[in-house]
Amino acid sequence: MSEIILITGAAGGIGQCLSQQLIQRDAELILADLDANRLAAQCAGLGVRARPFAIDITEEQQIDGLITFIRERFGRLDVLVNNAAIVRVGSFADRSTASIRRELDINLLAPLMLTHRCLDLLDHSRNARVVNTISIAGIFPTTESPIYSASKFGLRGAMLALAPELEQRGIQVSCIMPSATDTPMLRHEAVSGGSPLQFLDPPQTVETVVRHILQVLAKPKLETAPKRSELWLTRLLMLCPNLLPRLMPLLQSWGERGLKRYLSDLEKRGLAEQRNGKWRLIAETHE
Questions:
Q1: Which of 42, 77, 205, 229 is deepest in the core (most CB within 10 A)?
Q2: Radius of gyration of the chain (CA)
Q3: Which residues make beta-bridge pairs with 274?
């Protein structure tokens, strides 16, 4: 019997790659994203087992419509993949209240509310799982994107707290903690003044993250990362948060060198260019 899988942020880099892999495994997909046009084109290429659902996951009425669609079409849900996220970089002092709220709504409140609304559907599955694409930024704070870090810290904490309760219902919770991944979102961060801490190591590929998600779907773990060494390093650093003010300048300098290498790589790939001392993306690709 085919698994019924809901993926949010399905039109982004990780969402697209994951959808392609799951279709090959005969899954029935509900692909949710704000970008209706990109989502429709994506589903057309995946075939009839991929169903687009254009949605703003921060809107409660739209979530109601999504839940109704899944219930009427399938009667259950086997896997919820909370993958949608945004990041805004820059000075905290310059942020508007609306932009702060929007980032928290999408990254933190929306996945929690969607998980809550999906519980009844997940209860009808024999192998229910909730997989959350979080981030190393949910363990280690990233400068230049404090609201993103706050949202990821919050989602990680909530899911770790929820896991025992949901396990009693037969629902396995997993938190995937990828470090920097070569997606359109990271490329935008790179040219827009994003945190150099993202680039301490070369960004991993989308395929690397998706392979790890597939492993977790097959064998759930509460918390795991594609690059386990980075997961353990960030955990170790956070044992002594009072040392962070002293460590940050060193880490920033290290990350800035990595950022320069990444921008140079984007330029070689024809994805970014430098004009008048400023970097910009040439094309917003969604691989």
A1: 77
A2: 19
A3: 279
Q: Are the C-beta atoms of 114 and 57 separated by less than 8 Å?
A: yes
The reply to whether CATH 3.40.50.1820 applies to domain 4-281 is: no
Cα 257 from Cα 110, distance rounded (Å): 35
- Residues composing the chain: 287
Q: What is the pLDDT along the chain (287 residues), one digit of tens a residue?
A: 899 999 999 999 999 999 999 999 999 999 999 999 999 999 999 999 999 999 999 999 999 999 999 999 999 999 999 999 999 988 899 999 999 999 999 999 999 999 999 999 999 999 999 999 999 999 999 888 999 999 999 999 999 999 999 999 999 999 999 999 999 989 999 999 888 988 989 999 999 999 999 999 999 999 999 998 888 889 998 998 999 999 999 999 999 999 999 999 999 999 999 998 899 999 654 33
Nearest CA-CA partner of 131 in 15, 17, 213, 28: 213
In the three-class reduction of DSSP (H, G, I as helix; E, B as strand; rest coil), residue 165 is classed as helix
Whether this prediction's pTM lies above 0.85 is answered by yes
Do 55 and 34 touch, CB atoms closer than 8 A? yes
CA dist 253 to 79, 139, 141, 174, 182, Å? 41, 20, 16, 33, 21
Q: Is 71 exposed, middle or buried (0-12, 13-18, 19+ CB in 10 A)?
A: middle
First to last CA, the chain: 29
196: burial class by Cβ within 10 Å (0-12, 13-18, 19+)?
Answer: buried
Only one residue has tokens 């704000």, namely 34
CA distance 44 to 204: 28
Q: Please, which residues bridge with residue 53 across strands?
A: 32
Helix H or strand E segment including 171? strand 171-176
- In sequence order, what are the beta bridge partners of 27? none
